[in-house]
Amino acid sequence: MKTLARARDKDEILRRLRSLRIDSPRRWGRMSVHQMVCHLGDAFRMGTGELTLSTATGLRHRTIVKWIALYAPLKWPPDIQTRPEIDQVAGRGRCPSNFADDVAEVEALLEAFVARAGSTEWPTHPIFGRLSESAWMRWGYLHVDHHLRQFGV
Description:
It is built from 5 helices and no strands.
């Protein structure tokens, strides 16, 4: 299973992220590529505890859905809804500014997220509840992979 805790998987994600272009066409969803980049930044801010999101969790999300999302050998489906605080289309979350700068910021946030490993307590995920460090690293990989696939990268 791929994870940001593994250097080669992290490097793959960073390479794919750097291959995005401002005109990369979306395959599904509502966000533009630039909105998606900002959404990824907000998600990593959530993962480092810098940004707190409203919870939408129940026993089913904290158990069955979490296990399927993180460990089943399936790609995340296109129609997953995000939390309102980081819904770029609704005008929430960080606003896009300069595309190259925003991509570089996501790279830095990803690196900061990975650097937390082994040295800190992790926040509670707004949907999955408490996650171990390895589950957070798995989530980080899968979340970015999902959105990169959204733009064919």
